[in-house]
From TrEMBL:
Keywords: Metal-binding, NAD, Transferase, Zinc. PROSITE patterns: SIRTUIN (PS50305). InterPro entries: DHS-like_NAD/FAD-binding_dom, NAD-dep_sirtuin_deacylases, Sirtuin, Sirtuin_cat_small_dom_sf, Ssirtuin_cat_dom. Its EC number is 2.3.1.286. This is protein acetyllysine N-acetyltransferase. The lineage of its organism: Bacteria, Bacillati, Actinomycetota, Actinomycetes, Micromonosporales. SUPFAM superfamilies: DHS-like NAD/FAD-binding domain (SSF52467). Residues 1-258 form the Deacetylase sirtuin-type domain. It holds the Pfam family SIR2. The active site is at 53 (proton acceptor). It comes from Paractinoplanes pyxinae. Zn(2+) binds at residues 61, 64, 165, 168.
C-alpha cells in the first residue's frame, strides 16, 4: 500500500514542471540543498542537488539499503507533456516528516559561483538551499541511479507491489525520509560542508523550524558567510540573514539570480 501511494505521488510529480525559481537556480553554478522529495531541481538542470529528505526517485532496499535500479522508476516518456507552469506540487511538496517544506538556500561560492554580488542562488520553491562554491558538491546518496539489483527485481510499470532487492531479496521502499527517521547522514554532512564553505547562501521557502535542516543557513552565518532569505513570511531564520526578501521563490529568485 505504501509503495503504491508513493508511486502515485511520483506520477503526480512527473506531471509537474520546474518553476521559474527552479530554473533561476539551475542557471547558476551552485550547490543545491533541498528538503523536497521531488526531482524538479534535477529537471530544471541543477546538478546533483543534495536531498536532505530523500527523493521519490531514489527507492532503496528496506533491509540492506542498496539503491534500487533506476529502471524501477520506469521512465514513461511523454509523461508531463507540455503544460509549462503547472503549479500545484511544485513549490510546496510537503516533507515526509510533515514540515511545511520548502526552503532553499543557495550559497554563492568562492570557487564556482563566481558571481559578483554574490547571490549564489537557490530556488526552489519548496525547500531548498543552494550553496554556491564547492564546484560540484557531488552526488548524494539520494541520487542513486540504478546500481544494485537485477533487472528481474523490477516490479514493472504500474506495479503497486514493491519490487524486491536484487541483493538480499527484501522489499524495496520509497527513498524518502519518513517521520521519525534520521536524515541521510551523507546528504546532511555534504550539506553542512557546503554551507560552511559558502560565501553566500540563499535560503528559500523554508519554515526554518525543522531541524537539522534549519541549522544549515545558520552554519553559513556562523562561518562568516552571508545568508539571504526568500520567503513570503518572516521565519525564525530572519535574524541570521543579511537580507530578507518577502515573496514567493518563483517571483523573487529570477530577479536576484542573473
Ligand atoms: Zn537488500
Amino acid at each position: 500500500m505504501v509503495w503504491g501511494w508513493y508511486e502515485w505521488r511520483r506520477e503526480l510529480v512527473e506531471r509537474v514542471h520546474p518553476n521559474a525559481g527552479h530554473e533561476a537556480v539551475a542557471r547558476r553554478e551552485c550547490t543545491v540543498i533541498t528538503q523536497n522529495v521531488d526531482d524538479l531541481h534535477e529537471r530544471a538542470g541543477s546538478k546533483d542537488p543534495i536531498h536532505l529528505h530523500g527523493s521519490l526517485f531514489a527507492p532503496r532496499c528496506s533491509a540492506c539499503g542498496e539503491a534500487a535500479p533506476r529502471s524501477l522508476n520506469a521512465e514513461k516518456s511523454g509523461v508531463g507533456g507540455v503544460g509549462k507552469g503547472a503549479v500545484g506540487i511544485a513549490g510546496g511538496t510537503k516533507a515526509e516528516n510533515g514540515s511545511p517544506m520548502g526552503s532553499a538556500a543557495a550559497a554563492g561560492g568562492a570557487a564556482g559561483a563566481g558571481g559578483a554580488a554574490g547571490a549564489g542562488s537557490a530556488a526552489g520553491a519548496g525547500g531548498t538551499a543552494v550553496a554556491g562554491g564547492a564546484a560540484g558538491a557531488g552526488g548524494v546518496a539520494a541520487s542513486a541511479v540504478g546500481r544494485a539489483g537485477s533487472p528481474s527485481a523490477a516490479g514493472g510499470e504500474g506495479s503497486r507491489t514493491p519490487p524486491v532487492c536484487g541483493y538480499c531479496g527484501a522489499a524495496v521502499r520509497p527513498g524518502v525520509v519518513w517521520f521519525g527517521e534520521a536524515l541521510p547522514v551523507a546528504a546532511l554532512e555534504e550539506a553542512v560542508t557546503a554551507a560552511a564553505n559558502a560565501d553566500v547562501l540563499i535560503t528559500v521557502g523554508t519554515s526554518g523550524v525543522v531541524y537539522p535542516a534549519a541549522e544549515i543557513p545558520q552554519v553559513t552565518a556562523k562561518m562568516g558567510g552571508a545568508v539571504i532569505q526568500v520567503n513570503p513570511q518572516p521565519t525564525p531564520l530572519d535574524p541570521f540573514c543579511v537580507v530578507n526578501l518577502r515573496g514567493p521563490a518563483a517571483e523573487v529568485l529570477p530577479r536576484i539570480i542573473s
